[in-house]
Amino acid sequence: MAIPWLVALKVIPWGDVIEHAPKVLNAARKLMDRQKMPAESTPLPEPLDMGDAPPSPGELKNRLIEARQLIDQQAAVQEQMAQTLTELAEQNARLVGAVDLLRKRTRVLMVVVAALVVGMAVLFAR
Known about the structure:
The protein is mostly helical. The protein has helices at 2-11, 14-36, 38-41, 57-125.
């Protein structure tokens, strides 16, 4: 049982995992904080009331500026989420590669163990 753990400890790129772990953790915390309080961070503008009089050009300009700011904030959030997702995907790919290498080494080890068992059986049968 100790040998697979030692192999796993040697194969996994722990330096990369440790290096990127704080970044991923911080990004995940920021994402969770945004999910908890979306209404408090970005208030939505009031809907336009077209009933009485048309809005003035200044009011339309202010609403357009508010809308543009909201769009820019959403674009920044989307970009940050994309970066976080990219980092997670890269780490996942490295982990999958390490697991695949472990799987291959385990197969080789099992073949060697089976050959040794057969060899020992032949030696003791004489």
